[in-house]
Every structure is written in C-alpha cells, then in structure tokens.
C-alpha cells in the first residue's frame, strides 16, 4: 500500500475514535455533567479531526469542523453557555461532522443544504453574547493574550514560578502549511493556558514591508513560558501534535543544562523537507550562533529529522508512562486464534494418546502434558483477550439513530445506555449492529406512544429507551427496553390469524402470543414507512441472534413497556464443557450452564403425565429430560437410576435435570460452526473435535430444556419459535 494511503487509512480510523469521544462527551454534557475536562475533550476531538483533514486537503471537512471548533471554543472559554438547546445543536452537528468524515473516506456526498444550515447555526451560536473576553472582544485575534513587542531574548521571559512549579520555554514558528490546513496559532496558544500560567512574546522581526507581504505566508513567531505545577513536556507537545510537521517547535525546561535547540537543528517540514532559510538565520542569531552561511542554510536531512521527531515522541511517551498500543490487521488475529484452536485440539489428542498408553499421572510425560495444558489455556485466554472489545463500539452508533427516528416519528425519546464497557468477542460485536438497530427502531416506532398520548396516560412526554449489557453465566446479555405501551396481545393474535400464520382457534399463552412477532411476514404497522411496516425485521433479528449461538426472549406488560433480552456467547472460539455419553453418542454440555451432577434415586423421581418426569432436588422439583430421547437417539427412556443427571440453569433462570448415560470428563473444546459446515440442528448449538479426532456435538441447553408444545406446527414456523411455560413455573402440587 502507498505510504500516504496507509496514513490516510489510519487517519480515518482515528476519526471514528474521535467521533465516538465527541458524542460521548456531548451526551455527558446533555446529562448535566459540568466537568470542564469533558468540554476540553469534545473540543480536542473536533480539533484533531480538522487538523488531520487539513493534512489531506479535505476542504469540506476542514471548513465544517472549523466552524464547529469555533463554537466549542466559545463554550469552553465561558463566552456562551452550553444550555440544552446548544447541546442539541452540537449533537446534530456531530452527526453532520460524521457524515463529512464518511463521505471523505468512502468518496460519497453530504447533504449540502443540511451541512450549510448546520454551519450557519453553529456560527450564530459562536456569535452569541457573553461576558468573557474573547477574540472578537479584543480585536487582535488573540483574545486574552498580552503580547510584548520585545526582542527574542530568552532571558527576558523567565517566570517567577512557585517553588513546586515547573516552567517550559517554547519557541513556536508556524510555517505557511500550518495556516493552509486551517490551523490557528491563537487557538494553540490558548490551549497552553490550560496547562498553567503563560507569558508570550511576539517576534515580528521577519515581517516584510507591506508591498512584499504575501498573505499566504507565515512571518510571525512566538516564545512562550508555560508555568504550572503539573506541566510536562509531553503535555506541551500534545498541544502542538497536529501541527508538529508544519512549524518549527522547540521545548526546553527552564533551568535545564541544555539550551534551546538552534533553529538550524530543528525538525524540518515532514511533508516536504522544505527549509525557511531566513527563519534559520534569524533563529541562529537569536540563539547567539554565528550566522555563517553554513549554519544558516544547513538543516538535517528529512530522514534524520524524522528520526529525531520519533525519538522525541518516544521519550515523551515513556515519560508519561501511558499504555502503548499497536494496530494489527484483524486477519492476523483471526489466524492466531485459529492456530490456538488447533493447538488446543492437538493438546487434547496428546493427552488422549498418553491416557491410552496407561502412563501413571506421576510420570514425567504426564506431568509435562499437564504443564502443556496449563500453558495452552493461558495462551488461549491471552489471545481471546486480544479480540475482546467493549460493546461501546456498537452502542455509540445508537444515540444518533435514536435522534433520527425520534425526529421522523415526532416523538421525544431519551436513550439510556448501561454496561458499555462490557467486553465480548469482536466477531460477536460486528454482528450485533443490525439486530440491535432493528429492535431500537421498533421500540421507538411501535413501543413508545406519541407525546400527547403519554401525557394522557399519566406518563412524561419523553419516552425512555434503555440499552444495557452485562455478563451472566459465561454469556453476554443485552437488554433493550422501553416504557411504552407494551404488546397489544389481542391485536397481535388477530393479525396473525388474518395473515394465516396461526389457526383461528389456536389456544396460546401470553408468552406464545408475544413470540408471534418473530414470525416471518408479521407486522403490526398499519402503513409502510421508512422505519417499519414491511414485515421484515424481527424474524431477521431472531435468525441473526440464533446464528451467533444466542437466543432472544420477550417480557411485556401492557401500558408499561417491553423488554427484549438477547443472550449471546462471549466468544465463538472456545468453551469449557462437560463431555458426556448418551445412547452411544458423545456430546458436550457447556460448563457455565451446569450447576451440579448427581445420581438420581428412585424415590426422588415422579411421573408427570404420560411421558414427563420431574425430580426432587433440594426441596424443589425440576423437569427430568432424557437427552437421548429429546435428540432422537432413542425412543425408550431408560430408568433414571441407571444414568447421571446434570442440573442445569437456562438464561431465564429456569432449571432442569438432563439425563445422560455417563460423564467422560471436563475439557476445553474448540467451537466449530455446525450451521456453516452442515446445517442447523434443533437442540445443538455447535460441534467440536475431540482428542481422538471424533466430532462431538455441543448441546444448546435452553433449546433442550424446552420440549415441543402440542400443536406447535399450527402456531410456529419452527420447532423453537414459541417458548411454552418455563419449567421453573410448574406448580409444586402438580409435581407431587
């Protein structure tokens, strides 16, 4: 790849991060957080985007971000107040800024009218009256700074710091390229004031006569003394981060043995290696260096200058002791994970071969294999941690979606997000976006009432949609809830009858009626719109979640709202499982779902109807399910006392005892997709390869716990489309 193109790719990756930081900060401000650092973070996000856009001559992006940045600067300086109306404008502007970034990245276009209108609104916001002195108030373009027209003598800017303060002397000479990229020296100097007290001296000695002045060139320079208790060189350099290649910059701590770097040794423009000879001569004179021609025109080669810049940056990073990260192609990580999976399989095969040879556990080979197993587990955990990412990368897309849908429907909506730092495998995250988008759209369009209807029902005008993520039982659970009208079950059932999806005389429970919305072609929308009503959406959601090895449940209360709960595996690569034998077949039960194993006693087993059984465990009764018969391996259930019962718990808290013939042991297995390599199988979540090379099926605990209801064919489009009453809801009187 062309080096410039690679840098551009990195720039757009960082833009996505900056946009996320921008939206997070604005949402915090909207929630009433008055922390000045949040405003600073928001400003820096827009400033960073503008600086990078200028480097690549992305003029539309530069212009809009410049107006945006100006408004934010007025807010953080206290010139204007960030009230709710201003925050809403900034949020909409963040959406437009994101459109500009994506258009620049993908070669698309932006709605010019919307962008222009938003830019004018931002400009009007920035021109609002305020009590704080600003650039417009002073008339000199530099606001609160007081410049002293004195010679560039470092001895005259020595500050009188407090005993615990540190002073850094900064020499800053912009080049023309800095202004061509829409950067401003005034904003950079103002940013330094946030690090501590500053004294600024202007060097205008390079300013030519008016007839010789080029309006596109740079003639001024500054010397700044920054003093504060927490000032560091790294913090000062961070202020000039985006203009580092477009200016002469030297930073030295006051009192240090080394003098300021002579201008002849400063880093030249990294983009082109151009040297301003007059500036070098002037800087050499000011540093009391003999202005010989050799010194005046000499400068390090671009490669050497780049090395110096990299060394300085590395030293600054080390001093700040911040975590270091690298960008790695996802394909390389996937390849590494595949290899670790093969390592796990081969380790299991070796253990199997050693066991077949009858070696003692205390033998050196067996001990070595145990060490290999522990090492393999650590490698696997470390590799999986590389792919683990917080769901924030998905959640951050939805505030904008909510604003857009609310505007289209005329509803007032507030989105609350919890658990954004909950980590899950990147593969799972990438496939969550579409299902969650469908569900949030439906929550606003179908779930929430119009503001007038909410007021009439005694609710606040503003509806609430809540998006939460958490870890539970070795899985990730995502909940999407609203405080709207809930599911109108009578209407849902009637629509299903009218569409021929169920029989008119079907006797369905509330839970079965709720699950009808997942049937293909079902929709409660009276009209087709850009948001919903075409009968595609929720059935796609369920298929998407099931393809990830997950499931979705509904809980709805009329007049109070609905909650959709998604349960997904944390990773699609490996799991800890219990290897069991059923009717001569080897199966794997996920260990996270197993509470305990026990040998059933005849006195604890009760019959329930002609075919069902329950077992008494710790003063409660749970269904006793024969895995062999449930999966079709056999037609006759053997006596429970001849097998082993696994007490398992499903996602909803329901429990059941799964009967197996024997337990082989506990192992870590590599997950292989059954759907991708074969086809979906009811009751089976995936497959794996055992140590002896055989393929074993991994049980879908929740699917196995739920037997097919009578008449399911009349009410569902699949064996597990409608969930009957949970096993834990069985009355104890019936169980006895």
Summarize the topology.
Layout: H1 3-30, H2 36-55, H3 59-76, H4 84-106, H5 112-126, H6 135-138, E1 147-148, E2 166-174, H7 176-180, H8 185-192, E3 197-203, E4 221-228, H9 233-239, E5 247-253, H10 277-286, H11 293-297, H12 302-320, H13 330-356, H14 364-387, E6 388-390, H15 392-395, H16 398-409, E7 413-418, E8 423-425, H17 426-430, H18 433-447, H19 451-456, E9 463-472, E10 475-482, H20 489-498, H21 510-514, H22 538-547, E11 551-557, E12 561-569, E13 574-582, E14 585-590, E15 594-598, E16 605-608, E17 612-617, E18 620-626, H23 627-630, E19 644-649, E20 655-660, E21 662-670, H24 674-677, E22 684-689, E23 695-699, H25 701-705, H26 712-715, H27 732-735
Parallel strand pairs: 1-3, 7-9, 14-23, 18-20
Antiparallel strand pairs: 2-4, 2-5, 3-4, 6-8, 9-10, 10-12, 11-12, 13-14, 13-21, 15-19, 16-17, 17-18, 19-20, 22-23
Helix pairs in contact: 1-2, 1-4, 2-3, 3-4, 3-5, 4-5, 13-14, 16-18, 18-22
Number of strands: 23
Overall mean pLDDT: 76
Helix content range of the residues, please?
40-55%
How much strand content do the residues show?
15-25%
Classify the secondary structure makeup into a structural class: alpha+beta
Report the biggest beta sheet as strand number plus sense, adding barrel if it closes.
6 strands, mixed
Oligomer: single chain
Using only C-alpha atoms, the radius of gyration works out to 33 Å
For the record, the count of structural domains works out to: 5
Terminal residue distance: 72 Å
Spatial sequence of strands, sheet with the most strands: 15-19-20-18-17-16
- Tell me the overall shape: globular
- Total helices: the number is 27
Poorly predicted runs are 129-163, 257-322, 708-736
């Amino acid at each position: 790849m062309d080096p410039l193109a690679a840098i551009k790719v990195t720039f757009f990756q960082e833009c996505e991060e900056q946009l996320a930081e921008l939206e997070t900060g604005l949402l915090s401000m909207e929630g009433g957080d008055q922390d000045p650092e949040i405003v600073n973070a928001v400003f820096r996000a827009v400033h960073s985007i503008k600086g990078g856009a200028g480097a690549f001559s992305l003029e539309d992006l530069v212009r809009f971000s410049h107006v945006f940045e100006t408004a934010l600067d007025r807010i953080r300086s206290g010139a204007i107040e960030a009230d709710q109306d201003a925050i809403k404008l900034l949020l909409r502007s963040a959406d437009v800024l994101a459109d500009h970034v994506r258009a620049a990245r993908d070669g698309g276009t932006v709605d010019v009218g919307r962008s222009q209108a938003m830019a004018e609104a931002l400009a009007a916001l920035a021109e609002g009256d305020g009590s704080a002195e600003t650039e417009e108030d002073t008339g000199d373009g530099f606001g609160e700074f007081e410049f002293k027209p004195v010679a560039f003598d470092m001895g005259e800017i020595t500050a009188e710091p407090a005993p615990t303060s540190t002073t850094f002397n900064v020499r800053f000479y912009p080049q023309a390229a800095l202004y061509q990229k829409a950067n401003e020296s005034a904003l950079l100097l103002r940013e330094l004031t946030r690090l501590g007290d500053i004294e600024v001296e202007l060097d205008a000695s390079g300013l030519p006569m008016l007839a010789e002045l080029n309006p596109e060139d740079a003639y001024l320079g500054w010397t700044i003394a920054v003093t504060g208790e927490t000032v560091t060189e790294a913090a000062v350099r961070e202020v000039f981060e985006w203009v580092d290649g477009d200016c002469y910059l030297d930073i030295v701590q006051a009192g240090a043995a080394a003098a300021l770097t002579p201008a002849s040794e400063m880093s030249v423009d990294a983009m082109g290696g151009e040297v301003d000879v007059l500036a070098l001569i002037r800087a050499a004179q000011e540093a009391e260096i003999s202005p010989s021609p050799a010194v005046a025109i000499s400068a390090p080669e671009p490669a050497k200058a780049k090395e110096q810049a990299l060394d300085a940056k590395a030293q600054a990073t080390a001093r700040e002791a911040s975590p270091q990260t690298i960008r790695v192609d996802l394909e390389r990580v996937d390849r590494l994970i595949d290899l670790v999976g093969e390592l796990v399989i081969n380790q299991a095969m070796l253990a199997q071969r050693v066991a077949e040879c009858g070696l003692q556990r205390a033998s050196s080979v067996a001990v070595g294999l145990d060490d290999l197993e522990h090492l393999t587990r650590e490698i696997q955990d470390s590799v999986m941690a590389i792919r683990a990412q917080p769901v924030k990368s998905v959640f951050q897309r939805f505030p904008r979606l909510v604003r857009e849908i609310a505007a289209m429907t005329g509803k007032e909506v507030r989105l609350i997000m919890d658990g954004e730092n909950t980590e899950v495998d990147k593969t799972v995250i990438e496939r969550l976006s579409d299902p969650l988008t469908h569900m949030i759209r439906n929550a606003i369009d179908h779930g929430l009432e119009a503001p007038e209807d909410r007021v009439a029902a005694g609710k606040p005008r503003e509806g609430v949609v809540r998006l939460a993520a958490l870890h539970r039982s070795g899985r990730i659970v995502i909940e999407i809830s609203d405080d709207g009208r809930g599911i109108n079950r009578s209407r849902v059932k009637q629509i299903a009858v009218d569409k021929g999806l169920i029989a008119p005389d079907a006797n369905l429970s509330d839970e079965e009626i709720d699950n009808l919305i997942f049937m293909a072609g079902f929709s409660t929308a009276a009209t087709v719109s850009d948001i919903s009503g075409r009968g595609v959406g929720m059935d796609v959601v369920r298929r998407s979640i099931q393809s990830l090895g997950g499931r979705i449940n509904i809980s709805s209360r009329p007049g109070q709202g609905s909650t959709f709960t998604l349960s997904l595996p944390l990773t699609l690569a490996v799991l800890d499982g219990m290897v069991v034998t059923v009717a001569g077949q080897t199966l794997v039960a996920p260990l996270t779902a197993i509470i305990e194993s026990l040998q059933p006693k005849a006195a604890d087993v009760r019959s329930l109807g002609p075919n069902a059984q329950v077992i008494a465990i710790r003063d409660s009764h749970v269904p006793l399910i024969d895995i062999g018969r449930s999966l079709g391996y056999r037609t006759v259930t053997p006596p429970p006392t001849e097998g082993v019962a696994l007490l398992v718990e499903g996602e909803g808290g329901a429990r059941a005892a799964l009967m197996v013939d024997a337990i082989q042991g506990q192992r870590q297995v590599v997950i292989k997709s059954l759907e991708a390599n074969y086809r979906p199988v009811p009751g089976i979540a995936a497959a794996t390869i055992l140590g002896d090379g055989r393929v074993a099926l991994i049980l879908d605990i929740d699917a196995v716990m739920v037997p097919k209801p009578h008449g399911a064919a009349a009410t569902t489009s699949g064996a597990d489309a409608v969930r009957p009453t949970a096993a834990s809801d069985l009355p104890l009187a019936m169980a006895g």
